[in-house]
Amino acid sequence: MRGSAGGERERIKESILVTRVTMTGDQPNRSLARRALEAAIRRGLKRAYKSIAVDPQEYLFHLRVAHDLPVETYQGVFSIPVDRLDNVARQTIRAGMKMAAAEGAGMGLGGFLTLVPDLSILAGITMRTIQKLSLIYGFPFTTDEEQAELWVAAASAAGVDISRELLEKQVLKRFVPRVMQRIAAQASTEVAEKWAGRLIPLTSSVVGAVLNYYFVRSWGRRAMAHFRERHLESRASQVQPGVLLPPAR
C-alpha cells in the first residue's frame, strides 16, 4: 500500500511539473517535464508488456466466437481472406479508439493534473491494440523472437526508426527497453505539441477524449499496415505460383 501511495504522489508531482512548464514556459524545467511524460508512457508500455498483455490463446478463442473466424491455430489465419482480416482489424482499432476516448474524457476532467496517469493508461490501451492486431494477422508473441517483432511493429506504429536497435533484437532484455524508450520519447513529443488544451479543466475532458481517440487511430492504422504487409509476405511464401493476393490499401 505504501509503495502504491508513493507512486501516486510521484505521478501527481510529475503532473504539477508538466502543468507549470506548459503554463509559464519554464525553460529550466522543460526537460524534466518531458522526462515525466516519457516515464508515464514507459509505465503504460511496461504494464501492457508484463502484466496486462493480451493472452494469445484466449484471443484466438475470441476471434472464433466474436468474429466467427474458423481458425483453430494462428497458422489457420493465413487461410482466411485478407479482406476479412482487415475488417476485424478495423473493428479492433475502433474499439481501442472508443476505450481511449472514454478514458481520456474521464481523466480529462482534472486538466493537466491527470495528464501523467492518463498517458500511462493510454499507452497501455495502445499497446494492447497493437498486440491484438498482431494476433489478427497471425503473429502470436510467445517466443523471444516473436516478442521482438511485436516491438518492431510498435516502433513502426510510433514512426520511430530503430535500425540501430535491430542489431540487438536477439537479446530481448536489452532490445525491448531501448525500443520502449524510443517509443516513449516519440509519444511524449506528440503530447507536448498537441495537448495544451488539457490546461483548462472545463474543456479538457472533451480535448482528452478527442486526442486519445485520434492517438489510438493513427498508431493503430500504422500498426495494421505493418502487420498486413508481413502477413501478405508470409502468405506469398506459402501459396502456389499464379495465385493473386489482394493489393495493400
Helices, strands, pairings?
Layout: H1 2-24, H2 30-50, H3 56-66, H4 82-108, H5 115-136, H6 144-158, H7 172-194, H8 201-236
Helix pairs in contact: 1-2, 2-5, 2-7, 4-5, 4-8, 5-6, 5-8, 6-7, 6-8
Name its key features.
71% helix; single chain; mainly alpha; globular
Summarize the structure.
The chain has 249 residues and is mostly helical. The chain is built from 8 helices and no strands.
Explain what you see.
- This protein is an all-alpha fold and 249 residues long.
- Helix 1 packs across helix 2, helix 2 (30-50) packs across helix 7 and helix 4 packs antiparallel against helix 5.
- It has helices spanning 2-24, 30-50, 56-66, 82-108, 115-136, 144-158, 172-194, 201-236.
- It is 71% helix and 0% strand.
What percentage of residues falls in helices of 4 or more residues? over 70%
* Overall shape: globular
- Please indicate the count of domains: 1
Q: How is the main sheet built? A: none
Alpha-beta classification: mainly alpha
- Give the integer mean of the pLDDT values: 78
Our measurement of the CA-to-CA distance between the termini, rounded to an integer number of angstroms, reads 49 Å
DSSP strand (E) fraction? Answer: under 5%
Distinct helical segment count: 8
Oligomeric form: single chain
Gyration radius over CA: 19 Å
Q: What is the β-strand count?
A: 0
Q: From N to C, what is the helix and strand string? A: HHHHHHHH
The poorly predicted ranges are: 11-29, 240-244
